[in-house]
Amino acid sequence: MNAPNENFELTMTRFFRAPREKVYAAFVQPELMAAWQCPRGMTVEVNADVRVGGAYHLQMRGRDGHQFAVGGQFVELDPPGRLTYTWAWEGDESPLAGLQTLIEVDFVGRDGGTEMRMRHSGFRNALERGNHRHGWDSCFNKLNDLVDPQGTAGTLTLLGDARSPYVRTARMGFAEKGVAVTLKPVAAHSPELLAVHPFGRMPALLDGEAAIWETIAILRFVDESFGDGPLLTPGRISDRVQCEQWVSAVNCYLYDTMVRRYVMQYLFPKGDGGQPDRRVIDQALGEMPAQLAALEKVYERADFIAGDGISFADLFVAPILHYLEQMPEGKRLLTDMPNIRRAQGVIRQRPSFVTTAP
Asked: I need a labelling partner for 333 at 20 to 30 A (CA). Which of 97, 125, 139, 162 fits?
């Protein structure tokens, strides 16, 4: 929880499921500081002379090559209860260059863990304070990854129904990147989901207290925030265009035809007498051959839609085709699609597909 005041001070409180000694150490041991002292998607090099009056220096780097530097001095070291240090951005290009602020952190044992209370003071205006609030939120999510016994699964919570193709797409993305996430079952448009996703659709993601919604946004977040695992965004512009085309095609055409108007008519029939609505099903079946033919053609080149490896596009398509082939008419339509069947055979062998089966 954050509570900035009219003096442009930022106060933040965060609970960590870890003892005070472990959380305190993460603030002062350079090898631990390097794991979290920068927002998600960045890396940091740390140099620190951990003593009262000793200096520290953080060199942050973004994936786009931009670098940011901050330094200061340790003012108070009282392990494992309190820590005070100065904070100053460096570099002539920084709009905050020359501004020195003060950070005071208290570590309080509570409920089998640690409540961290931080006061960051010295900002000149609300904009400076707000920018630091956003950065610290992301940093503390990484700190939670580091000290929580569950790792990233203690920080990242995916809300949705495991049966949803979109939820499975998101879960496959985390699995491909090797990032543990906790799935919390919730229903579409439920109060719990609406508190995170303004339109009540699934999935939605909580990174600590930060809300991320829409499947493609969640996938971009995991792809750019975590360095391990393959990049899910193709490198060449032509492949990125191909990937975007098929993500859009799923959202605009395939999901509506193959899931909403076909599969779900069987699973949740709304026709007369509680039977599937044949009119809706037959109309969807009439549209599927052209859609599958386009997908069959793109799989002529390789087992993946865009580039030389798995991408967002494959993650969107695979769960839908998995449901389609479970249905009698869908299975027949796929009989004449050898490229699709070959490519899906490859996807089915990937651990991300196996471990996310609903």
From this structure: 162
**In Å, what is the CA distance from 215 to each residue of 118, 221, 264?**
33, 10, 20
pLDDT, tens digit (0-9, with 9 covering 90-100), for 247-283 = 999 999 999 999 999 999 999 988 888 899 999 999 9
Residue 339's H or E segment, with its range, is helix 338-348
**pLDDT band at residue 29 under the 50/70/90 scheme:** very high
- Domain spans in the chain, listed from the N-terminal domain onward: 10-149, 153-225, 237-355
CA–CA separation, 168 and 352 (whole Å): 9
Q: What fold is seen in the domain 237-355?
A: Glutathione S-transferase Yfyf (Class Pi); Chain A, domain 2 (1.20.1050)
Contact by Cβ (8 Å): 60, 67: yes
Pairing type for strands 82-90 and 67-78 reads antiparallel
Residue 289 · residue 333 · CB < 8 Å = yes
354-357 long-range contacts, CB within 8 A, separation 24+: 355/175, 356/162, 356/168, 356/171, 356/172, 356/175
